[in-house]
Amino acid sequence: MTNIDFIKKAVATAAINIQKTVELLQEDCTIPFISRYRKDTTGNLDEVQIEQIAKLQKEYEVIVKRKEAILKSIEEQKALTPELEKKIQQSFDLQELEDFYLPFKKKKKTKADVARENGLEPLAKIIMAQGKDDVDFLATKYLNANVANEEAALQGARDIIAEWINENIYVRKQLRRLYERKATITTKVVKSKKDEEAAQKFNQYFDWSEPLTKAPSHRLLAILRAENEGFIKFKVEVDIDEAYDIIDELVLKGQSPATPHVQLAIEDSFKRLLNPAISNETLQEAKAKADANSIQVFANNLGQLLLAPPLGEKRILAIDPGFRSGCKVVCLDEKGDLLYNETIYPHAPQNETAMAMKKIRSMVNSYKIDAISIGNGTASRETEFFIKKIAFDKPVQVFIVSEAGASVYSASKIAREEFPNYDVTVRGSVSIGRRLSDPLAELVKIDPKAIGVGQYQHDVDQNKLKEELDNTVIRCVNSVGININTASKHLLSYVSGIGEKLAENIVNYRSENGPFENRKQLKKVPRLGEKAYQQGVAFIRISNAKNPLDNSAVHPEAYGIVEKMAKDLKLSVNDLIANKEKTALIKAENYITPEIGLLTLKDIIKELEKPGLDPRKSAKVFEFDPNVKSIKDVKSGMILPGIVNNITNFGCFVDIGIKESGLVHISQLKSGFVSDVNEVVKLHQHVEVKVTEVDEDRKRIQLTMIL
User: Fold this and answer.
1) pTM of the predicted protein model
2) Domain ranges of the chain
3) pLDDT in tens, 379-391
4) Helical H runs in 77-182?
């Protein structure tokens, strides 16, 4: 099987599209570049499909490499037959390959190995043949210094047969199917831990059983965490009689004197070898699916968070609220640069409200502030009420901003590099302000796991999680594009083809030579070669560039075509851009070249209509219910405004303006069956919810959605 055939089994597109995509990937083209600027080559595959092709190509390479290693190992053991070699060469299933290799795999000394050393393999073969021989009598011929009696001989032979059954590829395949269809996961509490406070969040799993196929990802991960923390024990099992029936059918040849011995070997093989191995395989496979599901939920949430509406280039006063330690205030200019910082004490115990109001008014006027960003942590609502009491000389918008991860950023190396002369409190406030003006630019500096928009992120495969989250960040950054003259090196590092080192070189070049005036200047950046230029140049934007296309998503390789379009319409490129009436006259098919096809040309015309358009919406002011300041104010039956701040497989969490977010269970999202919460709500969506239950002691609020 070729790599193209292997990939085509999972990706619904023509083989030629897969082949061309693989070729582009092998030429070190990035996924954002391929999906945006090579649509005609790939048959219009999107980023998700291209990512899938890239992953499957890696899987194929892993399988081929493993095959080579297995064949080499068996050959070195002088055990490779033409038939076995053919089976291995034709297999593209890692599990099946490991089954072929199992009899030849180096392992610790087994009971079967001891029996072979004691000369009992011929007896095992006679029993396994299941002829009419009197095996009890034959056993007497195999007694020696290490085999004291007939029972010891028969037991040794059964040990060998048990291993043969365990290594039988057909037995393993059929049992796997049984486990895949009918395995049950059963849990029991560890009695000595039952009353511990930390165990109570897992109390529903103290005595639990359900089919493994029906256990949703969040429940399986919760069970595994509870077991890992020592609160429960669990097992994955199938009906033992059904398992025996499967093996009997494949191993037994009818009734004979050997049948009871083979049956004993079957039972031993299942209990001692097959069940532990295949139940663990089944669990690991279920865990891998649960991981993939949770990682996808996390990636979806992260994508929505990164693409949250920005306020844009405004002057912002940001507040990290607090009681005793005061509110840390910073003033930022349109680029997010720090202009001033101060600490005010409007709340108890100092209660310097009048002085704090005076200072805020003064800062808003002095630094021409357009909007105020307040972190949503401790004292957030009290600070919001305080700010709204101030009579400003001009309208000032007030936003409550999630401060999740701000403390992680403020103590990070990135923050220390940006603000070496300021402490963590100032850095945290700056982050709260910047994530209002441009969430994407600010949040890329923070480890996604610290942002708090996933479920069980610490329980899933960390390598796969990192890979998926990195892909999500890359996808978001390149879908928006970045201003090369204002972007931090951390934001630049996610641009197609750039990476950390080139991002640093770009920032250094900018510092030494001033702002970039055109895209061609990128080529002057040290170590930024033709390939990196090709992959990255169209994702950067240069405001007020001499060539207006430098502030668009049009790739420089297509500038000549745009110039021809303008010339044919007797216009300059400047006059063509954003001129809907004129762009509507362009017939894309007239400009097809061997390099640039119809799909790319249609994208170019669409871009000319609205060059550099940010796909994100604008930030909107949101107001929580002013009467709800803590969980004590929340009562059943209340209808409250809220913001969706986390989405999981079992529902979504809604911020209603207090420390505790409320849960809208998936069953409460709308009438009828909902399999995907993202079908109904999105992160940061403004919603109305009804309170159905409040548990003050456990700090839990149950909500239903009003749609």
Assistant:
1) 0.86
2) 3-104, 111-295, 631-706
3) 999 999 999 999 9
4) 82-90, 94-101, 111-117, 121-129, 135-139, 150-166, 169-182
